[in-house]
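Q: What would this chain look like folded?
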Amino acid sequence: MIKQDSENQPDTPPASAGRRTLLKGTVAAAAAPMVLTSRKSAAQTVELPPSPPVEPWTQELPAQFSPIERAAALDPAPTAVANIGAGECGRGEHQRFAEICGKAIERGTPPLFYELKARENRDWVFNPAYPPQPVWGFRGSDGQVTAPGPTFFARYGQPVIVRIHNELPQGHVGFGSPEISTHLHNAHIPSESDGFPGDFFSPVKAGPTLTTAGQWRDHFWPNVYAGLDRYGGIGDPREGQGTLFYHDHNLDFTAPNVLKGQAGFYLLFDDLDSGDERDANPQALRLPSHPYDYPIILQDKRFGPDGVLFYDQFHPEGTLGDRVCVNGRIQPVLKVARRKYRLRILNGGPSRYYFLHLVAPNGARQPFVYIANDGNLLPRPLYNQNKMALAPAERADIVVDFSMYPRGTELYLVDRQIQDDTRGPKGVGRGRPVLKLIVDRDPPEPDVSRVPLRLRALPPISAAEIAAATVRRFEFDRRNGQWAINNELFEVDQPRVIVPQGAAEIWELVNPSGGWHHPIHVHFEEARILSKRVKGVDVPIPPWERGRKDIFNLLPGDDTVTRVFMRFRDFHGKYVMHCHNIVHEDHAMMLRFDITP
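A: My prediction, written as C-alpha cells:
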C-alpha cells in the first residue's frame, strides 16, 4: 500500500563563503555546524536531522491555473537601449529589437507586454504542519505573490517584453541574496536578456557585467526559432520548443534564490503544438490543452525542527532536501477529470534526482505516453511508458488518459530514487509519494485531444557538418574542494571559449570525478547527443534522449564522455555553460563562452 508520509519511506534516510559575499554584503543564514576534514571537500556539514513530519494530502492544487495576463502597455515604453533615467538597470542594448518587433507588427502579431515583480511573501504555507514563512516569489497580474511564479503562455512569431521589477527586501536576514538575474531556460534569445549571472541587479547594486543598479529591467524574449538567419521568417520550425521555465541566475546565489521561490513556467506554442486541442489546422497536433495542460515543478527542500525552510548556502556540497514540494506544496492533491491530460513535469532542483512512477494504491504502475524531454517534443511519442528519470532541470511531458479510471480513483506520483546526499542517486527503492491525484469528475465536454503518431521532426545533421565541426573537451571535476571545469573556476568577466556566430561545434562533456553526477546545461542552443561512452565503450542513448536537449546528465565513473552537437546562430554575446546541480554552479562549476559576430 502507498504510505502517506515520506519520512516513513525506506529510500529516504532519516566551507567556504561564496566569492561574492563581501562584495554584496549579504547577511548569512545561520549555517549548519561544519567541521574541517582531510577530504577533498575541505569541510563537511554535520548530519542534519530530518525535516519534521507533515500532514499529507491536506492541500489541494488548483484544478486549473490561470496564465499571467498581459499588460496593455508598459510605462515608460520599452526601448532598445536601457532607460537608466527612468530606473532601469544598465543592461546591454537589445539585439535585433527594431527588426524583430517590426516584422512581428507587419505579420499582425505585435509584441506583447508583461510585468513581474519579485517580492517577498511572508505567509507561504508549504504544509499545514509547518508555520507560515517567507518566500521570494513573483507578483503576477492577479496581485498574488506566488512561488513558483505565474505561468506564461507565449507563441512563436510574437515577441514578448517582460518588465521585471526587483522589490525584494534589502538587508534581509537568512539565506539568499536580494539581487536577481532572470534566465529563461533554454530560450533562443540575445545575451543581454538571457539572465547572465553577472547581470544581477537591485535598486542599490549592479552586477559586474551591468553599468548601473536599477529598480527594474526589460527582458526581450523574441520567440523565434533557431535558424532565423538561414531560414528567414521566424526561423526553422523543427527547432520549436515547448516547456520552458524561468528562474533566477544570480551569481553565486542561484540555488538559494531558486529554493526561495524564484522560478516559474513559460509555455511556448506554434502552429504544430498550438495549445488548442480543437485546432482546425490540419498541421496541429491537438495535444491536450488548457486547462488540461498542467505544469508541475518538483523541488527538494529541507526544514529545520521549527518547520522553517533551511539551506546552507556556503557549503560546496549544498543541502539535500528531504521533502519534495510540488508547485510549492508538500504532498498536495490534484483533482482531475476523466479525460486525457498533458502533464509537464520539471525537476526544479536544486540537487535531487527523481525516478518517477504513476501508481495505483496497491503500487501497480500505470501507463502514460512520453511526448517530450526537456523543452522539446520527441519525433515520435513513446507509448506505454511507466517511468521518468529526471536530473535537475530536466523536464518530461507526458500524456495520461484518466478516462480509463472510474470516478473516485486515487493515483500517486511516486519517487523511487534513493539519494541521501548531493552526489546523486544511489539506486531504486520502494519510493515515496509526492503527489496524490484523484479522478473526481467527468469533463464538461467531449475529449477531442489526441497523441498523433508523429510529433516534431528533427532538424537534419549532415555527416559533412559533423566532420567539419570544431571539437572541444570539457572536464567537470573537483579540485581542492572546489568545483571546476578543465581545472578552472568561473570568472564572470573572462570568456573561456570564443565561438563564431553561425558555427557548428561538437562539445565533449566529461565526468572523471568519483561518485558525483553532473547535469550539464549549455545556454542559448539546444543540442543533440551524438554518443555516450563509459570506460571507452559506447552505451545506448535512451529513446527519450534522442531528440533535442539542453540538459546532459554525466554519470560518475572513469572517463564518462557525452558528445553533443550544437549550432550557434542568430545572436551574439556572453553566455554560460554550467552544472545544473545549482549548488555546483554557485561554487564555480561554470564557464563563460562568447559568441562573436
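Helices lie at 21-24, 97-107, 228-231, 254-259, 463-468, 582-586.
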